[in-house]
Q: What sequence folds into this?
């Protein structure tokens, strides 16, 4: 008979699969758009959204969503793992192989360190019952670097011009 543990494991697998399918269909949609198939692109977007619905349902069912303070703590841990343990050896290998993955690995390792810091800042605020102070959040669309407030200069991670940053809603 299936046990709670089995379902817990199944949820993890399903959440990972659906999350990946969402990103993949998003990429496929952009490609279909570029290739001149806007309706195929729309279908990919709809399916991508459907996979997000599934992924979020699975995450909720496995009690993967806590209080905002708990979620920020989890986010700090996740980003910290990525820039301290996960990416450094991956980057090293890609550099050795002279694989084109080295660019995004290199950007990601720097961006995740910043993400961890920003989450830590947010956690401090939330712990004292406050929201994050910064009114604006800007995202570098090339490398994933995030800045609170309008960027003063080029992206410190990838060098993109500040006017190319995206202001988040
Ligand atoms: Fe990150
Ligand atoms: Fe950047």
A:
């Amino acid at each position: 008979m299936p046990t709670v543990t089995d379902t817990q494991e199944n949820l993890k697998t399903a959440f990972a699969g659906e999350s990946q399918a969402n990103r993949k269909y998003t990429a496929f949609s952009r490609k279909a758009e570029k290739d001149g198939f806007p309706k195929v692109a729309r279908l990919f977007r709809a399916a991508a959204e459907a996979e997000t619905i599934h992924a979020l349902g699975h995450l909720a069912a496995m009690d993967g969503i806590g209080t905002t303070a708990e979620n920020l703590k989890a986010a700090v841990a996740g980003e910290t793992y990525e820039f301290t343990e996960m990416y450094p050896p991956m980057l090293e290998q890609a550099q050795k192989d002279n694989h084109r993955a080295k660019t995004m690995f290199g950007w990601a390792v720097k961006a995740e360190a910043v993400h961890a810091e920003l989450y830590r800042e947010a956690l401090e605020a939330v712990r004292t019952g406050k929201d994050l102070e910064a009114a604006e959040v800007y995202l570098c669309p090339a490398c994933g670097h995030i800045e609170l407030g309008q960027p003063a200069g080029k992206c410190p991670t990838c060098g993109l011009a500040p006017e190319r940053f995206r202001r988040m809603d």
Observations:
- The chain has three domains: 4-61, 67-133, 134-169.
- The beta strands are 137-139, 146-148, 166-167.
- The radius of gyration is 19 Å.
